[in-house]
């Protein structure tokens, strides 16, 4: 759950950065915060969700490539959306597994 909150915070940072790019405000702090948060999120996910951690690092790399701000914002939005979707699916699978394990334990103790 903690990693899902961190992904939400990253998505909020991407949206703030996109809004500052539109309104011509200072943008360097948003990008540096995003680049700082993504590797930490990847480290947290690596133990159990290695493929999602790889998606996070791919998103981090795409944000540092030399392209226009609009392209980087778009790639970050898409990457964060993919990571959020993958985390939601992973959380649902973990909950299902725990429900199945609890059901097996209950049926085993009744016999």
Radius of gyration: 18 Å
First CA to last CA: what distance? Answer: 35 Å
Element-level helix/strand string: HHHH
Class of secondary structure makeup: mainly alpha
Mind sketching the topology for me?
Layout: H1 2-22, H2 28-46, H3 50-63, H4 69-110
Tell me about this structure:
With 111 residues, the protein is mostly helical. It has helices spanning 2-22, 28-46, 50-63, 69-110. The mean pLDDT is 78.
Key terms:
mainly alpha, elongated
Characterize this entry briefly.
The protein is built from four helices and no strands. The protein is mostly helical.
